[in-house]
Amino acid sequence: xxxxxxxxxxxxxxxxxxxxxxxxxxxxxxxxxxxxxxxxxxxxxxxxxxxxxxxxxxxxxxxxxxxxxxxxxxxxxxxxxxxxxxxxxxxxxxxxxxxxxxxxxxxxxxxxxxxxxxxxxxxxxxxxxxxxxxxxxxxxxxxxxxxxxxxxxxxxxxxxxxxxxxxxxxxxxxxxxxxxxxxxxxxxxxxxxxxxxxxxxxxxxxxxxxxxxxxxxxxxxxxxxxxxxxxxxxxxxxxxxxxxxxx
Length: 247
Description:
The chain is an alpha/beta fold. It has a single domain (5-12, 49-242), classed as 2-Layer Sandwich (Nucleotidyltransferase, domain 5), CATH 3.30.420. The chain is 43% helix and 18% strand. It has helices at 21-29, 35-41, 100-115, 127-142, 148-156, 168-173, 183-189, 204-209, 213-233, 235-242; strands at residues 5-14, 46-55, 60-66, 77-79, 91-97, 121-124, 165-167. Helix 1 (21-29) packs across helix 2 (35-41). The chain is globular. The two termini are 20 Å apart.
């Protein structure tokens, strides 16, 4: 049976304006965080700057990024390190979007097209806790309808018998029975290079402010390939969970 999985990840920064900054700062103070850190992790305040997905069946890697954030003109693709079993894509195709709303709309169409296939699933690491809520809440902000209903159904389905969305955090922790660790720990443990060698999530804000959006895309793409490696190593487990079998 064809493995119709779409592995994806988002990178975000705080959606701060002169009008909202003080209010967000007050919220962040209660958690001993900066407004930038708080906003980047709070789904309704987390502006999506790029999103990368890997289509397992087609072996294609694609990225959407917010082209309004500056930086040099983007090439049609960026090279990626090839590795893994089976080999991962050698490049990531780029699509420059006209702002966050355009990015969300485009990915919503990707989701609709993908989930229209038989046995199709979305695959994330902690997507139930972050990526899907971010996409849903930011779509609400921009009044984007493409893909929103499907993402809402995916995040709300029975986590023990998922059909539309496999969250690898559930798989590697046996639904919370084992401690949580970062995705990179499992990737390294399963023989994949650390995707955090050149950048980590705490550096995304600074990179975006410096106009280095393509560096953020490259980092996100590395995370997606590492997540895909973990998924493929766990594929028999993920397939059993995704089919509704008791684990």
